[in-house]
Automatic annotation (TrEMBL):
It catalyses: Hydrolysis of terminal, non-reducing beta-D-mannose residues in beta-D-mannosides. This is Beta-mannosidase B. It comes from Photobacterium aquimaris. InterPro entries: Beta-gal/glucu_dom_sf, Beta-mannosidase-like_N2, Beta-mannosidase_GH2, Beta-mannosidase_Ig, Galactose-bd-like_sf, GH, Ig-like_fold, Ig-like_GH2. Pathway: Glycan metabolism; N-glycan degradation. The lineage of its organism: Bacteria, Pseudomonadati, Pseudomonadota, Gammaproteobacteria, Vibrionales. Residues 736-809 form the Beta-mannosidase Ig-fold domain. GO terms for molecular function: beta-mannosidase activity. The keyword Transferase does not apply. Its main location: secreted. One of its GO terms (biological process) is carbohydrate metabolic process. Residues 21-181 form the Beta-mannosidase-like galactose-binding domain. Belongs to the glycosyl hydrolase 2 family. Beta-mannosidase B subfamily.
């Protein structure tokens, strides 16, 4: 029986003798324990980040006692297994040093039987400060390697296998956290040590074969052990002998129930169970065919994920770690963020390379929800060593992670790193010694490729994000949009207009985005009211991107009338962000099949901060997330304008033909109908179509008269969109007498909204937990809206905590 060492431990600081015998919950982190004990203030509040820097500049000891019986010690080996040990650590048991570890991305395992005793035992983990360890490693490098300066606040973290964002990023607090964030167990081994269980799917006309291979090591004198493997109600018994290290069985599945990404079909999962020597392992297996196709075509080279022979239009966002304080990474928060991703019609997330290989719960939920996963290996925006030690360390890490994750049906691609090539071309040191740094890069990158290809031949290794493909590795910033994946930062970084998104159609856009500020309720959670000002030092300390706040405000002046007051600035920043990302996403969707993927930067926040996220740290949906729900919907309508005129495009990503019915209306700012035309259209599966057009000559001179609005239904689903003839600041918006009322019927809380004049970006914000079914929409006089509240607040709480915004009142 596995013995868990999770729970209460004691925490002591090596350098500060007054801090001894505090409680720390493991899995957990030192900062969270100090905060709970009242030793430090809340690191996320105001400018407290500065006040807690000393924590990462100390060494810490966590320890506990545990009891063992004589019977528990009759085994042949006792493995101490630790997950997510961060990072440079020494393990002592009953005074003996049993191991030194220094890679948080490994599962560490060490046989400690010889140090254990009947009765009381003591385990101590010394957690060394990361900054000095990194500096030591950097000093020993054969030549200097630029680290992620600008993002990281602490140098040389590229030498340590620790999440790079722990030392700060352009959306992250710098805490240099320490702790153990995964399970700590003692695993007695009677006869056999299980290494891992691996599956392989082989598809043929009649069905699918699932080969299951158990990797093990027999340790007992007896030299034999038994195992049982069960899949879909069928069990095989295996004898494991000392001469071998693996055993396989094959299950044949006729008419398999296939697993599909969200929006394309159901997420059928089968259970695979193994039992051997008192150890039980279960996995959920999704049966599906998977390919990543990159083929030359008339537009350059495609990049498309194909599942069960169906090309997928990938729609989603980039995922960063859930929290900068790892003790706060709860299962419930994973579930709620990932459910919110699918609620916004996403079907893919990219686990970005400066964070961490995610916890099991993340991938299990992605399997259940149908979220495809683009998995970066953990390297980002710096140059990394290719010394033999480092390569050996990384080989072990990647082997472990690929074995751990490869059976997840949601995982579609392994990618070598994030923007490391961009770093080579940016840093003076590597620009000057370019050949040396390219060779250095390739040594490590080849190692990553070899390990991935050996351990998981079922998937492609993609060298870097972004890159053009096999041996066509280019700069992050000046690459070819006709092939490969692209990070499109022309608008945010280069300050171009939103229209710049229309000048390029990436084959697969793995990053693009625009920042906004958090909503007022989230701001209240980290700022005192006297600091509610966009240039107050504490508000600025929650903005980690150079010039971030200036970019947001400067962009206001281009598109909007300047907002009046802090609260409207927050609101308008979210309108602006939504508009930027919407412009790109909708246009690229009309360009299918040239484009087959778009993942905006970024889905979530790891602390309350101004950032590119669509979900705030509090879980609250930004306006962007409500827009994503519409612009990522399988059926979508959008306007574009070109030399001929204004066009209405319909997009269907579904696997079935669909009928869309409704109308296009041209309406004055006062709400007068200038023109209307009914639309009834059949859309083939996986298609796009221009269904309506208004020539420029008919529009010229009348552009300022009003706006176009499309209102369609596809079954129960409402599809709407609005086309403003000019930037909002040039539009003569009328003052709408927007009315809203909260009502409760059949245990449902709804907000009823109506207006006698058109209102734009009508946004519902609630102080408490939960969200609305829809928000940040155009409200036209003809269509009252009834918006459902989704959450656990009571009617009275919603009435008291609701605020409704719209564009005209922001100035
Ligand atoms: C990217 C990412 C991150 C960064 C983001 C915003 O390109 O890869 O490094 O946080 O842009 O600047």
């Amino acid at each position: 029986m596995t013995i868990s060492l999770n729970g209460q431990w004691l925490l002591a600081c090596v350098q500060r003798s007054a801090i001894q015998d505090l409680h720390i919950n493991l899995p957990g982190d030192v900062h969270s324990a100090l905060y709970a004990a009242g030793e430090i203030p809340d690191p996320y509040w105001a400018t407290n980040e500065k006040k807690v820097q000393w924590v990462g500049e100390c060494d810490w000891i966590v320890s506990r006692h545990f009891e063992l019986t004589a019977e528990q010690l009759t085994c042949n080996a006792m493995d101490l297994v630790l997950e997510q040990l961060d990072t440079v650590a020494e393990i002592r048991i009953n005074g003996h040093t049993v191991a030194d570890f220094n890679n948080m991305f490994m599962r560490h395992k060490v046989d400690v039987l010889s140090c254990l005793q009947v009765g009381a035992n003591r385990i101590e983990i010394v957690l060394h400060r990361a900054d000095l360890a990194a500096k030591n490693r950097a000093d020993k490098l054969p030549f200097p390697l630029p680290w992620a300066e600008g993002n990281n606040q602490i140098p040389f973290m590229n030498t340590l296998r620790k999440p790079q964002f722990h030392s700060g990023w352009d959306w992250s607090i710098c805490l240099s956290v320490l702790g153990v964030y995964g399970d700590i167990v003692l695993q007695p081994i009677e006869h056999v040590r299980i290494s891992h269980l691996a599956t392989k799917q082989k598809w043929h006309q009649q069905g699918c074969e699932l080969a299951v291979t158990l990797h093990y090591e027999v340790v007992s004198e007896k030299g034999l052990a038994n195992a049982a493997v069960t899949f879909d109600g069928q069990t095989f018994h295996l004898t494991l002998d000392r001469e071998s290290t693996k055993a396989s069985v094959i299950f044949r599945i006729d008419n398999p129930r296939q697993w599909w990404p969200a929006g394309y079909g159901k997420q059928q999962l089968y259970k695979l169970a193994l039992e051997a020597d008192g150890v039980a392992i279960t996995k959920q297996i999704g049966l599906r065919k998977l390919e990543l196709v990159t083929e030359d075509d008339e537009y350059g080279q495609s990049m498309v994920v194909i599942v069960n022979d169906v090309p997928i239009s990938a729609r989603g966002a980039n995922w960063i770690p859930l929290d900068a304080m790892p003790a706060r990474m709860t299962e419930q928060r994973y579930r709620s963020l990932l459910t919110d991703a699918t609620a916004a019609n996403m079907n893919m997330l990219r686990v970005w390379g400066g964070g961490m290989y995610e916890k099991d719960i993340f991938y299990n939920l992605c399997d259940e929800l149908g979220l495809l996963v683009w998995q970066d290996l953990m390297f980002a925006n710096a140059l990394y060593p290719s010394t033999p030690d480092f390569i050996a360390e990384v080989e072990q890490e990647v082997e472990f992670q690929v074995r751990r994750l490869k059976d997840h049906p949601s995982l579609v691609l392994w990618c070598g790193d994030n923007e490391v090539l961009g770093a080579i071309n940016r840093e003076p040191e590597s620009r000057q010694h370019r050949e040396k740094h390219l060779i250095n890069y390739d040594r490590l990158n080849r190692t990553l490729a070899e390990v991935v290809e050996r351990e998981d031949p079922s998937r492609r290794f993609w060298a870097s994000s972004p890159c053009n493909g096999e041996l066509d590795i280019i700069d992050t910033w000046h690459h070819d949009p006709q092939r490969g994946d692209m990070h499109c930062w022309d608008v945010w970084d280069s300050g171009k207009e939103f229209d710049a998104y229309l000048q390029v159609t990436p084959r697969f856009c793995s990053e693009f985005g625009f920042q906004s500020w958090p909503s007022l309720p989230t701001v209240k959670s980290y700022l005192p009211e006297q600091d509610w000002n966009i240039s107050s030092p504490s508000f600025e300390s929650h903005q980690k991107s150079n010039n971030g706040n200036s970019i947001i405000t400067e962009m206001f002046t281009r598109y909007f009338r300047f907002p009046n007051g802090f609260v409207n600035m927050l609101y308008l920043s979210q309108v602006q962000q939504a508009l930027a990302v919407k412009t790109a996403a909708e246009y690229w969707r009309t360009q299918k099949p040239i484009n087959r993927g778009m993942l905006f930067w970024q889905l979530n926040d790891c602390w309350p901060v101004s950032s590119w996220s669509s979900l705030e740290y509090s879980g609250r949906w930004k306006q962007l997330h409500y827009h994503a729900r519409r612009f990522f919907a399988p059926q979508m309508a959008t306007f574009t304008r070109d030399q001929q005129g204004l066009k209405l495009h319909l997009v269907n990503d579904g696997r079935k033909n669909t009928e869309l019915k409704g109308e296009v209306v041209w309406q004055s700012w006062e709400g007068e109908i200038l023109y209307r035309e009914p639309i009834t259209q059949y859309l083939a599966a996986d298609s796009t179509k221009v269904v309506w057009e208004w020539l420029n000559e008919d529009l010229d001179g009348h552009e300022q008269d009003g706006f176009f609005h499309v209102h369609l239904h596809s079954g129960q689903q409402l599809i709407e969109n609005t086309w403003l003839p000019a930037r909002p600041k040039y539009c003569d918006l009328a003052c709408p007498d927007l009315r809203f009322e909260v009502a409760e019927h059949n245990n449902e809380i709804v907000v009823m909204l109506s207006s006698s004049k058109p209102a734009f970006f009508v946004h519902l914000e609630f102080e408490g937990e939960g969200r609305f079914e829809d928000s940040s929409f155009t409200l036209v006089p003809e269509h009252q809206r009834q918006i459902k509240y989704i959450g656990s607040a009571s009617y009275d709480e919603v009435v008291q905590g609701l605020r409704v915004y719209h564009l005209k009142q922001s100035y």
